[in-house]
Structure formats: C-alpha cells, structure tokens
Amino acid sequence: MITEIEQQSLDIDWFFTDGTHIAFAASGGGKLPESISESVDYNLLSHYFRDLPEMTEVKINKI
Q1: What is the tens place of the pLDDT at every residue in 3-61?
Q2: I want to staple 32 with a disulfide (CB 3.0 to 4.6 A). Which of 8, 37, 54, 58 is the partner?
Q3: HEC profile of 1-63
Q4: Residues with Cβ within 8 Å of residue 29, at least 6 apart in sequence
Q5: Which residues contact 22 (CB under 8 A, 6 or more apart)?
Q6: Closest by Cα among 26, 22, 21 to 10
Q7: Using alpha carbons only, how large is the chain's radius of gyration in Å?
Q8: Burial of 15 (0-12, 13-18, 19+ CB in 10 A)
Q9: CA distance linking residue 46 with residue 62, whole number of Å
Q10: CA neighbours within 13 Å on the CB side: how many for 11?
Q11: How far lies 30's CA from each of 9, 16, 21, 54, 61, in Å?
Q12: Distances from the Cα of 2 to the Cα of 10, 21, 38, angstroms
C-alpha cells in the first residue's frame, strides 16, 4: 500500500490499460487512484511494464 504521505511526497510512476493500449502516468505528488495506492506489490507491477519491449512510438499528451 502506498500511504497518503508517500503519495504527497513522491513522484510515483503508474500504469493503466484499456485492454489494448498501455499508458504511463507520473503522480507528481498527487493522489493516486485507489487501485494503484492499494496495490500489494506495486514494484512488481512497475517492473513488469517497464520490462516490456517497446512496440510503438511514444505519444505524449501535452495538455
């Protein structure tokens, strides 16, 4: 579990999918979705996504 204090003081990388695409976001010290903050083994999930081979070009949302 990622505590409220950790969420406020760390820039945590997190990932999500729509079933087809994988997306990456950085928290920037903001509140995480509960599905991420309550993850039992967040580091395992993070390493899994980071170790996947790059399959497409990166698309950056510049909002």
Answers
A1: 899 889 988 888 888 998 888 888 988 998 888 888 767 678 778 877 888 777 777 77
A2: 37
A3: CCCHHHHHHCCCEEEEECCCCEEEEECCCCCCCHHHHCCCCHHHHHHHHHHCCCCCCCCCCCC
A4: 7, 8, 9, 10, 11
A5: 15, 16, 49, 52
A6: 26
A7: 12
A8: middle
A9: 23
A10: 4
A11: 9, 16, 23, 27, 18
A12: 10, 25, 6
Closest CA relative to residue 46, chosen from 54, 38, 59, 36: 36
> In this structure, is the dihedral angle defined by the CA atoms of residues 50, 35, 25 and 2, taken in order, positive or negative?
negative
Give pTM, 2 decimals. Answer: 0.57
What residues have CB less than 8 Å from 30, skipping those under 6 apart? 7
Q: What integer pLDDT is reported at residue 33 of this predicted model?
A: 87
